[in-house]
Amino acid sequence: WVISLTLLCVVAASAQVFVPGKCPKPAVQENFDVTRYIGKWHEIQKLPNVFQRGECGTATYNLKAPGVVGVLNSELLADGSINSITGSAKVKDPSEPAKLEVSFYESSPPGPYWVLSSDYEGHSLVYGCTDYGLFHMEFAWILSRQPTLPEETIEELHSIMTAYGISVHKLTSTNQDEAFCTAMNQ
Q1: What would the pLDDT profile of 63-72 be if each residue is shown by its tens digit?
Q2: What is one Gene Ontology biological process annotated in the Swiss-Prot or TrEMBL record (predicted)?
Q3: In the chain, which ranges are continuous DSSP H helix?
């Protein structure tokens, strides 16, 4: 119990989003087609987390095998260096292909990566949540094929989140300014 409370305090102090109660169970994208989802996505907004500290965030997905997606996440750190990590995402249940589990280290457990909404060519809304007793920890990303996304699309995605009890108030915008992010494109 003491270790759990200590961990909770450390993670909460790191701007991780912990919420009282159990994880919501939002509906995911129907008839999700992972082959249309592969390619590069730009991070527009996210819930703060301990493993992303930079700007200009991108996620690039490639099909490794049926139901298995290769993941390359990259970001520009404050010192001008590029931080990247590779992993894989797997469809947990073929009847719900929009519910994936992503892992970046063999020694760490996979985390939920649920595609709530995507038109494959413009936007994607991704959500993940893990229960920890009296609290749950949420992750969310609004992604775009381009470094920008129309405000009305962002508002529509916020409405989806709000309808499932996912707070949009803690979402932070990711700097995707072309000049600022030049190093990511070299």
Answers
A1: 999 889 999 9
A2: lipid metabolic process
A3: 2-13, 34-37, 151-163
